[in-house]
Queue: 2 jobs
Job 1
Amino acid sequence: MEFGKADPSQLASIDFRLPDDDSRTWNSLAQAKKHLRGLPRFGVGAPVWGVKDWIGKVYPTGTPSKDFLFHYSRQFNTIELNTTHYRTPDVETVARWREQTPDTFRFCVKFLQEISHRHPLGGRSALLNEFVSAIMGLEDRLGISFLQLPPHFEPRDLGELRKFLEQLPKGFKIAVEVRHPSFFSDHKLNQAYFDLLSEFHAHAVITDVAGRRDVLHLSLPTSKVLLRFIGNDLHATDYTRIKDWVERLRTWVTLGLTDVEFFVHQPEDRNAPDLIAFLIDEINTSRIASADGTSVLQLQKWQPMNQGEQLGFF
Protein backbone atom coordinates (compact mmCIF):
# COMPACT_ATOMS: atom_id res chain seq x y z
CA MET A 1 0.00 0.00 0.00
CA GLU A 2 1.59 3.29 -1.14
CA PHE A 3 -0.86 5.75 0.44
CA GLY A 4 0.80 7.36 3.45
CA LYS A 5 3.92 5.24 3.18
CA ALA A 6 6.79 6.54 5.34
CA ASP A 7 10.50 5.98 5.07
CA PRO A 8 11.39 3.18 7.54
CA SER A 9 14.26 5.28 8.87
CA GLN A 10 11.72 7.90 10.04
CA LEU A 11 9.35 5.61 11.94
CA ALA A 12 10.96 6.07 15.33
CA SER A 13 10.47 9.85 15.10
CA ILE A 14 6.76 9.80 14.13
CA ASP A 15 4.17 10.65 16.76
CA PHE A 16 1.89 7.61 16.61
CA ARG A 17 -0.31 8.58 19.54
CA LEU A 18 -4.03 8.38 18.90
CA PRO A 19 -5.88 11.71 19.00
CA ASP A 20 -8.69 12.36 21.43
CA ASP A 21 -12.23 11.32 20.57
CA ASP A 22 -14.52 14.12 19.54
CA SER A 23 -18.00 14.77 20.84
CA ARG A 24 -19.60 13.13 17.79
CA THR A 25 -18.10 9.80 18.84
CA TRP A 26 -19.42 10.10 22.38
CA ASN A 27 -22.90 11.03 21.14
CA SER A 28 -23.04 8.20 18.59
CA LEU A 29 -21.97 5.59 21.10
CA ALA A 30 -24.25 6.93 23.82
CA GLN A 31 -27.25 6.61 21.50
CA ALA A 32 -26.31 3.03 20.62
CA LYS A 33 -25.73 2.02 24.24
CA LYS A 34 -29.40 2.65 25.05
CA HIS A 35 -30.33 -0.34 22.89
CA LEU A 36 -27.20 -2.47 23.15
CA ARG A 37 -27.24 -5.98 24.54
CA GLY A 38 -24.15 -8.17 24.79
CA LEU A 39 -20.84 -7.96 22.98
CA PRO A 40 -20.13 -6.18 19.69
CA ARG A 41 -19.42 -7.85 16.39
CA PHE A 42 -15.60 -7.89 16.27
CA GLY A 43 -14.01 -8.81 12.96
CA VAL A 44 -10.24 -9.15 12.57
CA GLY A 45 -8.60 -9.98 9.27
CA ALA A 46 -6.37 -9.03 6.35
CA PRO A 47 -6.92 -7.39 2.94
CA VAL A 48 -6.08 -10.55 0.95
CA TRP A 49 -6.39 -14.32 1.13
CA GLY A 50 -4.25 -15.35 -1.88
CA VAL A 51 -0.87 -15.37 -0.13
CA LYS A 52 1.25 -18.38 -1.03
CA ASP A 53 3.65 -17.60 1.83
CA TRP A 54 0.84 -18.55 4.23
CA ILE A 55 0.91 -22.19 3.06
CA GLY A 56 2.26 -24.31 5.88
CA LYS A 57 1.63 -21.49 8.34
CA VAL A 58 -1.95 -20.23 8.03
CA TYR A 59 -3.04 -22.78 5.41
CA PRO A 60 -2.29 -26.50 5.49
CA THR A 61 0.76 -27.66 3.58
CA GLY A 62 -0.11 -28.39 -0.04
CA THR A 63 -3.24 -26.18 -0.12
CA PRO A 64 -4.12 -25.29 -3.75
CA SER A 65 -4.99 -21.68 -4.50
CA LYS A 66 -8.65 -22.55 -5.15
CA ASP A 67 -8.98 -23.52 -1.48
CA PHE A 68 -7.27 -20.46 0.02
CA LEU A 69 -10.55 -18.69 0.84
CA PHE A 70 -11.96 -21.82 2.49
CA HIS A 71 -9.02 -22.00 4.87
CA TYR A 72 -8.70 -18.23 5.30
CA SER A 73 -12.32 -18.01 6.49
CA ARG A 74 -11.67 -20.67 9.12
CA GLN A 75 -8.67 -18.80 10.48
CA PHE A 76 -10.05 -15.23 10.29
CA ASN A 77 -13.62 -13.95 10.43
CA THR A 78 -13.48 -11.02 8.00
CA ILE A 79 -11.76 -9.86 4.80
CA GLU A 80 -11.23 -6.44 3.24
CA LEU A 81 -12.21 -7.58 -0.24
CA ASN A 82 -10.05 -5.53 -2.59
CA THR A 83 -10.52 -7.67 -5.69
CA THR A 84 -13.93 -6.02 -6.22
CA HIS A 85 -12.17 -2.66 -6.61
CA TYR A 86 -11.07 -3.78 -10.08
CA ARG A 87 -14.00 -5.79 -11.43
CA THR A 88 -17.58 -6.63 -10.56
CA PRO A 89 -17.75 -10.31 -9.60
CA ASP A 90 -20.10 -12.54 -11.57
CA VAL A 91 -22.94 -14.50 -9.99
CA GLU A 92 -21.00 -17.76 -9.96
CA THR A 93 -18.01 -16.20 -8.20
CA VAL A 94 -20.16 -14.60 -5.51
CA ALA A 95 -22.01 -17.88 -4.93
CA ARG A 96 -18.70 -19.72 -4.61
CA TRP A 97 -17.38 -17.18 -2.08
CA ARG A 98 -20.50 -17.61 0.01
CA GLU A 99 -20.41 -21.40 -0.16
CA GLN A 100 -16.75 -21.56 0.89
CA THR A 101 -17.21 -19.52 4.07
CA PRO A 102 -18.93 -20.16 7.42
CA ASP A 103 -21.96 -18.14 8.46
CA THR A 104 -19.90 -16.10 10.96
CA PHE A 105 -17.64 -14.77 8.20
CA ARG A 106 -18.07 -11.31 6.64
CA PHE A 107 -16.86 -9.82 3.35
CA CYS A 108 -16.21 -6.07 3.59
CA VAL A 109 -16.42 -5.34 -0.11
CA LYS A 110 -14.46 -2.47 -1.61
CA PHE A 111 -16.44 -0.56 -4.22
CA LEU A 112 -15.50 -0.79 -7.86
CA GLN A 113 -12.88 1.78 -8.88
CA GLU A 114 -14.91 2.72 -11.94
CA ILE A 115 -17.58 3.94 -9.51
CA SER A 116 -15.49 5.44 -6.72
CA HIS A 117 -12.73 7.14 -8.71
CA ARG A 118 -14.65 8.70 -11.61
CA HIS A 119 -16.63 11.94 -11.77
CA PRO A 120 -19.43 12.28 -11.08
CA LEU A 121 -19.55 9.82 -8.18
CA GLY A 122 -23.34 9.71 -8.08
CA GLY A 123 -23.84 9.77 -11.82
CA ARG A 124 -23.29 6.14 -12.75
CA SER A 125 -26.58 4.62 -11.65
CA ALA A 126 -26.56 1.60 -13.96
CA LEU A 127 -23.02 0.59 -12.98
CA LEU A 128 -23.76 1.18 -9.30
CA ASN A 129 -26.93 -0.91 -9.43
CA GLU A 130 -25.09 -3.72 -11.21
CA PHE A 131 -22.32 -3.74 -8.62
CA VAL A 132 -24.60 -3.58 -5.57
CA SER A 133 -26.85 -6.30 -7.00
CA ALA A 134 -23.81 -8.54 -7.51
CA ILE A 135 -22.36 -8.21 -4.02
CA MET A 136 -25.75 -8.55 -2.35
CA GLY A 137 -25.58 -12.12 -3.60
CA LEU A 138 -23.29 -12.70 -0.61
CA GLU A 139 -26.47 -12.39 1.50
CA ASP A 140 -25.63 -12.84 5.20
CA ARG A 141 -21.87 -12.92 4.45
CA LEU A 142 -21.96 -9.30 3.25
CA GLY A 143 -20.56 -7.04 5.95
CA ILE A 144 -19.84 -3.32 5.84
CA SER A 145 -18.98 -2.36 2.26
CA PHE A 146 -16.21 0.14 1.75
CA LEU A 147 -16.20 3.26 -0.47
CA GLN A 148 -12.65 4.57 -0.79
CA LEU A 149 -12.75 8.00 -2.40
CA PRO A 150 -9.76 9.20 -4.44
CA PRO A 151 -7.26 11.85 -3.30
CA HIS A 152 -8.83 14.44 -5.63
CA PHE A 153 -12.28 14.14 -3.98
CA GLU A 154 -12.71 17.40 -2.01
CA PRO A 155 -15.35 18.80 0.36
CA ARG A 156 -16.83 20.75 -2.57
CA ASP A 157 -17.71 17.34 -4.10
CA LEU A 158 -19.95 16.26 -1.20
CA GLY A 159 -23.02 16.74 -3.37
CA GLU A 160 -21.80 13.79 -5.44
CA LEU A 161 -21.45 11.68 -2.32
CA ARG A 162 -24.99 12.61 -1.26
CA LYS A 163 -26.35 11.52 -4.64
CA PHE A 164 -24.40 8.28 -4.38
CA LEU A 165 -25.72 7.47 -0.90
CA GLU A 166 -29.27 8.26 -1.99
CA GLN A 167 -29.09 5.49 -4.58
CA LEU A 168 -28.12 2.71 -2.18
CA PRO A 169 -30.78 0.23 -1.02
CA LYS A 170 -32.32 0.94 2.35
CA GLY A 171 -30.30 -0.68 5.13
CA PHE A 172 -27.22 -1.21 2.95
CA LYS A 173 -24.17 -1.06 5.22
CA ILE A 174 -21.41 1.20 3.91
CA ALA A 175 -18.33 2.93 5.30
CA VAL A 176 -16.62 5.84 3.55
CA GLU A 177 -12.96 6.91 3.44
CA VAL A 178 -11.78 10.34 2.28
CA ARG A 179 -8.15 11.29 1.70
CA HIS A 180 -8.00 14.90 0.51
CA PRO A 181 -6.08 17.00 3.09
CA SER A 182 -8.82 19.63 3.22
CA PHE A 183 -11.06 17.19 5.08
CA PHE A 184 -8.52 17.24 7.93
CA SER A 185 -6.84 20.65 7.66
CA ASP A 186 -5.32 21.93 10.89
CA HIS A 187 -6.71 18.80 12.58
CA LYS A 188 -10.22 20.22 12.19
CA LEU A 189 -12.56 17.66 10.68
CA ASN A 190 -14.92 18.73 7.94
CA GLN A 191 -18.25 18.80 9.77
CA ALA A 192 -20.35 18.77 6.59
CA TYR A 193 -18.80 15.44 5.64
CA PHE A 194 -19.47 13.78 8.98
CA ASP A 195 -22.96 15.28 9.11
CA LEU A 196 -23.67 13.69 5.74
CA LEU A 197 -22.49 10.29 6.98
CA SER A 198 -24.69 10.63 10.05
CA GLU A 199 -27.71 11.60 7.94
CA PHE A 200 -27.44 8.43 5.84
CA HIS A 201 -26.34 6.15 8.72
CA ALA A 202 -23.09 5.58 6.84
CA HIS A 203 -20.06 4.55 8.85
CA ALA A 204 -16.59 6.06 8.97
CA VAL A 205 -13.41 4.41 7.76
CA ILE A 206 -10.46 5.15 10.02
CA THR A 207 -7.05 4.69 8.41
CA ASP A 208 -3.99 4.60 10.65
CA VAL A 209 -0.91 5.00 8.44
CA ALA A 210 2.54 6.33 9.28
CA GLY A 211 2.94 8.99 6.60
CA ARG A 212 -0.52 10.64 6.80
CA ARG A 213 -1.27 11.21 10.47
CA ASP A 214 -3.84 13.85 9.54
CA VAL A 215 -6.30 11.24 8.23
CA LEU A 216 -6.33 9.49 11.61
CA HIS A 217 -9.60 10.97 12.83
CA LEU A 218 -11.51 9.50 15.77
CA SER A 219 -14.96 10.71 14.81
CA LEU A 220 -17.71 8.10 14.64
CA PRO A 221 -20.97 9.13 12.97
CA THR A 222 -22.45 5.74 13.98
CA SER A 223 -21.67 2.99 16.47
CA LYS A 224 -19.86 0.95 13.81
CA VAL A 225 -16.32 1.40 12.50
CA LEU A 226 -14.12 -0.01 9.75
CA LEU A 227 -10.50 0.36 10.84
CA ARG A 228 -7.59 -0.01 8.42
CA PHE A 229 -4.29 -0.38 10.27
CA ILE A 230 -1.25 0.04 8.02
CA GLY A 231 1.79 -1.49 9.68
CA ASN A 232 5.46 -1.47 8.77
CA ASP A 233 6.47 -5.12 8.55
CA LEU A 234 6.52 -5.79 12.29
CA HIS A 235 8.52 -2.71 13.23
CA ALA A 236 8.46 -2.08 17.01
CA THR A 237 5.98 0.74 16.49
CA ASP A 238 3.44 -1.70 15.00
CA TYR A 239 3.09 -3.34 18.40
CA THR A 240 2.81 -0.17 20.46
CA ARG A 241 0.21 1.18 18.04
CA ILE A 242 -1.82 -2.03 18.32
CA LYS A 243 -1.75 -1.76 22.10
CA ASP A 244 -3.06 1.79 21.90
CA TRP A 245 -5.88 0.72 19.57
CA VAL A 246 -6.96 -2.11 21.83
CA GLU A 247 -7.20 0.29 24.76
CA ARG A 248 -9.23 2.77 22.70
CA LEU A 249 -11.55 0.05 21.42
CA ARG A 250 -12.00 -1.24 24.95
CA THR A 251 -13.21 2.22 25.95
CA TRP A 252 -15.49 2.51 22.92
CA VAL A 253 -17.10 -0.85 23.65
CA THR A 254 -17.97 0.22 27.18
CA LEU A 255 -19.48 3.40 25.70
CA GLY A 256 -21.66 1.56 23.17
CA LEU A 257 -19.63 0.44 20.13
CA THR A 258 -21.58 -2.26 18.29
CA ASP A 259 -19.42 -3.33 15.31
CA VAL A 260 -15.69 -3.36 14.55
CA GLU A 261 -13.99 -4.55 11.38
CA PHE A 262 -10.23 -4.33 11.98
CA PHE A 263 -7.97 -4.95 8.97
CA VAL A 264 -4.22 -5.39 9.36
CA HIS A 265 -2.16 -4.32 6.34
CA GLN A 266 1.58 -4.90 5.97
CA PRO A 267 3.90 -3.95 3.10
CA GLU A 268 4.69 -7.67 2.89
CA ASP A 269 1.48 -9.67 3.19
CA ARG A 270 3.34 -12.62 4.68
CA ASN A 271 3.77 -10.59 7.90
CA ALA A 272 0.09 -9.76 8.47
CA PRO A 273 -0.84 -12.96 10.39
CA ASP A 274 1.83 -12.34 13.01
CA LEU A 275 0.46 -8.90 13.85
CA ILE A 276 -3.11 -10.21 13.75
CA ALA A 277 -2.13 -12.85 16.32
CA PHE A 278 -0.64 -10.13 18.52
CA LEU A 279 -3.78 -8.02 18.13
CA ILE A 280 -6.06 -10.89 19.17
CA ASP A 281 -3.84 -11.72 22.16
CA GLU A 282 -4.03 -8.09 23.27
CA ILE A 283 -7.83 -8.05 22.86
CA ASN A 284 -8.25 -11.23 24.87
CA THR A 285 -5.81 -10.14 27.57
CA SER A 286 -7.49 -6.76 27.96
CA ARG A 287 -10.81 -8.45 28.77
CA ILE A 288 -12.99 -6.06 26.82
CA ALA A 289 -16.36 -6.11 28.57
CA SER A 290 -19.77 -5.48 27.02
CA ALA A 291 -21.41 -2.13 27.61
CA ASP A 292 -23.79 -3.75 30.13
CA GLY A 293 -20.91 -5.53 31.87
CA THR A 294 -22.43 -9.00 31.50
CA SER A 295 -19.84 -10.61 29.19
CA VAL A 296 -16.18 -10.42 28.14
CA LEU A 297 -14.89 -10.54 24.57
CA GLN A 298 -12.68 -13.51 23.72
CA LEU A 299 -11.66 -13.95 20.07
CA GLN A 300 -10.38 -17.14 18.50
CA LYS A 301 -6.80 -16.76 17.30
CA TRP A 302 -5.68 -18.33 14.05
CA GLN A 303 -3.98 -21.69 14.51
CA PRO A 304 -0.49 -22.29 13.08
CA MET A 305 -0.35 -25.27 10.73
CA ASN A 306 1.99 -28.19 11.31
CA GLN A 307 3.20 -30.32 8.42
CA GLY A 308 0.17 -31.86 6.71
CA GLU A 309 -2.26 -30.57 9.35
CA GLN A 310 -5.86 -29.77 8.47
CA LEU A 311 -8.18 -27.39 10.25
CA GLY A 312 -10.67 -29.33 12.31
CA PHE A 313 -12.28 -26.95 14.77
CA PHE A 314 -15.21 -25.80 12.60
Note: The beta strands are 41-46, 78-81, 106-109, 145-148, 174-177, 203-208, 224-230, 259-265.
Job 2
Amino acid sequence: MSIVPNEARHLLVVDDDDRIRGLLKEYLARAGFRVTTAPDAAAAGKLMGLLDFDLIVLDVMMPGQDGFSFTREMRAKPGDGGRTPVLLLTARDLSADRIEGLTAGADDYLAKPFEPQELLLRIEAILRRSAARPITPKTLQLGACAFDADRGELTRDGAPIRLTEAEVELLRQLARAAHEPVDRLELARDTADATGRAVDVQVTRLRRKIEPDPKNPRYLQTVRGVGYRLSPD
Protein backbone atom coordinates (compact mmCIF):
# COMPACT_ATOMS: atom_id res chain seq x y z
CA MET A 1 0.00 0.00 0.00
CA SER A 2 1.44 3.38 -0.97
CA ILE A 3 1.63 6.03 1.74
CA VAL A 4 0.45 9.54 0.93
CA PRO A 5 3.24 12.05 1.72
CA ASN A 6 2.68 14.36 4.69
CA GLU A 7 2.51 17.47 2.53
CA ALA A 8 -0.65 16.07 0.94
CA ARG A 9 -2.26 15.60 4.38
CA HIS A 10 -4.42 18.40 5.74
CA LEU A 11 -4.76 18.63 9.54
CA LEU A 12 -7.15 20.77 11.57
CA VAL A 13 -5.78 21.81 14.98
CA VAL A 14 -8.43 23.03 17.44
CA ASP A 15 -7.28 24.59 20.73
CA ASP A 16 -8.38 27.71 22.61
CA ASP A 17 -4.83 28.41 23.84
CA ASP A 18 -3.18 30.67 21.26
CA ARG A 19 0.35 29.63 22.27
CA ILE A 20 -0.31 25.89 22.10
CA ARG A 21 -2.21 26.27 18.84
CA GLY A 22 0.69 28.18 17.30
CA LEU A 23 3.30 25.70 18.53
CA LEU A 24 1.32 22.74 17.20
CA LYS A 25 0.90 24.40 13.82
CA GLU A 26 4.61 25.18 13.58
CA TYR A 27 5.72 21.70 14.62
CA LEU A 28 3.28 19.83 12.37
CA ALA A 29 4.03 22.13 9.43
CA ARG A 30 7.75 21.37 9.87
CA ALA A 31 6.83 17.67 9.74
CA GLY A 32 5.39 18.32 6.30
CA PHE A 33 1.68 18.61 7.00
CA ARG A 34 -0.66 21.26 5.72
CA VAL A 35 -2.16 22.74 8.91
CA THR A 36 -5.27 24.86 9.52
CA THR A 37 -6.18 26.03 13.03
CA ALA A 38 -9.33 26.98 14.90
CA PRO A 39 -9.74 28.49 18.42
CA ASP A 40 -12.92 26.61 19.33
CA ALA A 41 -15.49 24.04 18.21
CA ALA A 42 -17.73 26.59 16.52
CA ALA A 43 -14.90 27.80 14.27
CA ALA A 44 -13.84 24.20 13.60
CA GLY A 45 -17.37 23.29 12.50
CA LYS A 46 -17.43 26.16 10.02
CA LEU A 47 -14.05 25.17 8.59
CA MET A 48 -15.20 21.56 8.18
CA GLY A 49 -18.12 22.82 6.13
CA LEU A 50 -15.69 24.51 3.74
CA LEU A 51 -12.62 22.26 3.66
CA ASP A 52 -11.74 18.57 3.76
CA PHE A 53 -9.39 17.39 6.50
CA ASP A 54 -7.47 14.14 6.90
CA LEU A 55 -7.36 14.37 10.71
CA ILE A 56 -8.42 16.67 13.56
CA VAL A 57 -6.20 17.37 16.57
CA LEU A 58 -8.80 18.46 19.10
CA ASP A 59 -8.47 19.95 22.58
CA VAL A 60 -11.06 18.71 25.08
CA MET A 61 -11.40 21.61 27.52
CA MET A 62 -12.53 24.62 25.50
CA PRO A 63 -15.03 27.42 26.16
CA GLY A 64 -18.40 26.71 24.61
CA GLN A 65 -18.64 23.21 23.18
CA ASP A 66 -16.00 20.83 24.53
CA GLY A 67 -14.05 18.27 22.50
CA PHE A 68 -16.12 15.28 23.64
CA SER A 69 -19.38 16.90 22.57
CA PHE A 70 -17.92 18.10 19.27
CA THR A 71 -16.65 14.60 18.46
CA ARG A 72 -20.03 13.01 19.23
CA GLU A 73 -21.83 15.61 17.11
CA MET A 74 -19.41 15.09 14.22
CA ARG A 75 -19.72 11.29 14.33
CA ALA A 76 -23.51 11.56 14.14
CA LYS A 77 -23.33 13.34 10.78
CA PRO A 78 -23.61 11.36 7.55
CA GLY A 79 -20.99 11.53 4.83
CA ASP A 80 -17.20 11.59 4.82
CA GLY A 81 -16.91 14.53 7.25
CA GLY A 82 -18.39 12.45 10.04
CA ARG A 83 -15.67 9.84 9.57
CA THR A 84 -12.70 12.22 9.83
CA PRO A 85 -10.17 10.77 12.34
CA VAL A 86 -9.89 12.62 15.66
CA LEU A 87 -6.98 12.77 18.10
CA LEU A 88 -8.02 14.30 21.43
CA LEU A 89 -5.54 16.38 23.46
CA THR A 90 -6.31 17.13 27.09
CA ALA A 91 -4.86 17.73 30.53
CA ARG A 92 -7.53 15.35 31.89
CA ASP A 93 -5.78 11.99 32.19
CA LEU A 94 -8.19 9.91 34.28
CA SER A 95 -9.17 6.57 32.78
CA ALA A 96 -12.82 7.67 32.85
CA ASP A 97 -11.91 10.66 30.66
CA ARG A 98 -10.06 8.45 28.17
CA ILE A 99 -13.03 6.10 28.04
CA GLU A 100 -15.41 9.01 27.47
CA GLY A 101 -13.26 10.34 24.64
CA LEU A 102 -12.97 7.00 22.87
CA THR A 103 -16.67 6.29 23.39
CA ALA A 104 -17.47 9.66 21.84
CA GLY A 105 -15.76 8.42 18.67
CA ALA A 106 -12.16 9.64 18.99
CA ASP A 107 -9.46 7.52 17.34
CA ASP A 108 -6.83 8.25 19.99
CA TYR A 109 -6.28 10.25 23.17
CA LEU A 110 -3.08 11.99 24.27
CA ALA A 111 -2.67 13.65 27.68
CA LYS A 112 -0.94 17.01 28.16
CA PRO A 113 1.92 17.62 28.58
CA PHE A 114 3.18 15.40 25.78
CA GLU A 115 6.29 14.94 23.71
CA PRO A 116 5.89 16.42 20.21
CA GLN A 117 7.46 13.29 18.71
CA GLU A 118 4.80 11.12 20.37
CA LEU A 119 2.06 13.34 18.94
CA LEU A 120 3.56 12.98 15.48
CA LEU A 121 3.83 9.20 15.78
CA ARG A 122 0.23 8.91 16.96
CA ILE A 123 -0.99 11.09 14.08
CA GLU A 124 0.92 9.00 11.54
CA ALA A 125 -0.45 5.77 13.07
CA ILE A 126 -4.04 7.03 12.82
CA LEU A 127 -3.50 8.12 9.22
CA ARG A 128 -2.08 4.70 8.33
CA ARG A 129 -5.12 2.99 9.87
CA SER A 130 -7.59 5.30 8.14
CA ALA A 131 -5.84 4.82 4.79
CA ALA A 132 -6.15 1.07 5.19
CA ARG A 133 -9.90 1.19 5.80
CA PRO A 134 -12.10 0.61 2.79
CA ILE A 135 -14.32 3.56 1.91
CA THR A 136 -17.89 2.73 2.82
CA PRO A 137 -20.23 3.33 -0.13
CA LYS A 138 -23.14 5.69 0.46
CA THR A 139 -25.61 2.92 -0.34
CA LEU A 140 -25.12 -0.46 1.32
CA GLN A 141 -26.63 -3.58 -0.22
CA LEU A 142 -28.22 -5.97 2.28
CA GLY A 143 -29.58 -8.74 0.09
CA ALA A 144 -32.85 -7.51 -1.38
CA CYS A 145 -32.59 -4.39 0.80
CA ALA A 146 -30.49 -1.28 0.30
CA PHE A 147 -29.67 1.39 2.88
CA ASP A 148 -28.75 4.93 1.80
CA ALA A 149 -26.89 6.30 4.82
CA ASP A 150 -26.94 9.93 3.65
CA ARG A 151 -30.69 9.95 3.05
CA GLY A 152 -31.49 7.57 5.90
CA GLU A 153 -33.63 5.49 3.55
CA LEU A 154 -34.11 1.71 3.51
CA THR A 155 -35.65 0.01 0.48
CA ARG A 156 -36.50 -3.56 -0.51
CA ASP A 157 -36.43 -4.20 -4.26
CA GLY A 158 -36.77 -0.45 -4.70
CA ALA A 159 -39.82 -0.07 -2.46
CA PRO A 160 -39.35 2.12 0.67
CA ILE A 161 -39.41 0.53 4.11
CA ARG A 162 -40.48 2.76 6.96
CA LEU A 163 -37.84 3.39 9.65
CA THR A 164 -38.10 5.27 12.93
CA GLU A 165 -35.55 8.02 13.60
CA ALA A 166 -33.87 5.75 16.16
CA GLU A 167 -33.58 2.93 13.61
CA VAL A 168 -32.09 5.29 11.02
CA GLU A 169 -29.47 6.52 13.47
CA LEU A 170 -28.62 2.97 14.56
CA LEU A 171 -28.15 1.84 10.96
CA ARG A 172 -26.00 4.89 10.24
CA GLN A 173 -23.75 4.13 13.20
CA LEU A 174 -23.35 0.53 12.08
CA ALA A 175 -22.88 1.54 8.44
CA ARG A 176 -19.99 3.85 9.35
CA ALA A 177 -18.19 0.82 10.76
CA ALA A 178 -19.44 -1.72 8.21
CA HIS A 179 -18.01 -5.22 8.75
CA GLU A 180 -16.58 -4.15 12.14
CA PRO A 181 -18.18 -4.86 15.55
CA VAL A 182 -19.58 -1.85 17.40
CA ASP A 183 -19.99 -1.87 21.18
CA ARG A 184 -23.67 -1.91 22.13
CA LEU A 185 -23.06 0.70 24.86
CA GLU A 186 -21.54 3.01 22.25
CA LEU A 187 -24.64 2.46 20.10
CA ALA A 188 -26.79 3.25 23.15
CA ARG A 189 -24.89 6.37 24.12
CA ASP A 190 -27.42 8.86 22.74
CA THR A 191 -30.55 6.82 23.46
CA ALA A 192 -32.92 7.15 26.40
CA ASP A 193 -31.72 3.81 27.78
CA ALA A 194 -27.94 3.80 28.19
CA THR A 195 -28.01 0.15 29.29
CA GLY A 196 -28.30 -0.95 25.66
CA ARG A 197 -31.74 -2.53 25.99
CA ALA A 198 -33.29 0.02 23.63
CA VAL A 199 -30.64 -0.88 21.05
CA ASP A 200 -31.48 -4.57 21.41
CA VAL A 201 -35.15 -3.81 20.70
CA GLN A 202 -34.25 -1.71 17.64
CA VAL A 203 -31.98 -4.46 16.32
CA THR A 204 -34.81 -7.00 16.63
CA ARG A 205 -37.15 -4.69 14.69
CA LEU A 206 -34.55 -3.96 12.02
CA ARG A 207 -33.89 -7.64 11.50
CA ARG A 208 -37.59 -8.15 10.74
CA LYS A 209 -37.28 -5.48 8.05
CA ILE A 210 -33.91 -6.52 6.58
CA GLU A 211 -33.27 -10.20 7.15
CA PRO A 212 -34.78 -13.04 5.08
CA ASP A 213 -34.68 -15.06 8.31
CA PRO A 214 -34.62 -12.71 11.35
CA LYS A 215 -33.87 -15.61 13.72
CA ASN A 216 -30.68 -16.39 11.75
CA PRO A 217 -29.41 -12.95 10.79
CA ARG A 218 -27.01 -12.65 7.87
CA TYR A 219 -26.61 -8.85 7.69
CA LEU A 220 -27.21 -7.48 11.20
CA GLN A 221 -25.13 -9.83 13.30
CA THR A 222 -24.63 -10.17 17.05
CA VAL A 223 -20.99 -10.13 18.17
CA ARG A 224 -20.97 -11.97 21.47
CA GLY A 225 -19.58 -9.93 24.34
CA VAL A 226 -19.27 -6.79 22.21
CA GLY A 227 -22.38 -5.64 20.39
CA TYR A 228 -23.47 -5.71 16.76
CA ARG A 229 -21.99 -5.69 13.27
CA LEU A 230 -23.53 -4.71 9.94
CA SER A 231 -22.22 -6.97 7.15
CA PRO A 232 -23.45 -5.68 3.79
CA ASP A 233 -22.88 -7.60 0.54
Note: The radius of gyration is 19 Å.
